[in-house]
# Entry
Amino acid sequence: MEKSRLLEVEGYSLEELHVAESSEGDQADGERSTLPDVDFRAFTHSTDPDKFAVSLRVGGKRGRLKFSLRIVGYFTVAEPFLNGKVPAERVVNALSILYGVVRGYIGTCAAWFDGSIVIPTVYFTDLVNAKIETARQRAIEESEDRLIEPAKTA
# Structure
């Protein structure tokens, strides 16, 4: 890989794909631009410091169809990660790439039901930053649990 490339896609694996007609609720409700349910995790390679993977799960309802999908993408970066942590901007890039693949799969599957779906775009920077902040808060709370109250002096 050239040093000028910051992120290269090695491949992806579609782990789950479910699309079905939904009988619940008003079908017109699903046509609104509600964001799909999105969750993700990033993993570093155990021995190669310039490789990582991202797992992305997307689910929701659009029109008369409900869907869920899980995909794992494999990526290589130009420079090795420090401390085995994937920088937020690399995770955002990887998720954006995978989400394009997800939108293609969901759109294609909708044709099986004589329909079409375009799931809304997602701003992954906000999601990644929120996950980082949650992890920070959890670390702070866990460290507070380990504190010992000072002895009271009489």
The first strand starts at residue 7 and ends at 21. The helical segments are 88-111, 124-145. The first helix runs from residue 88 to 111.
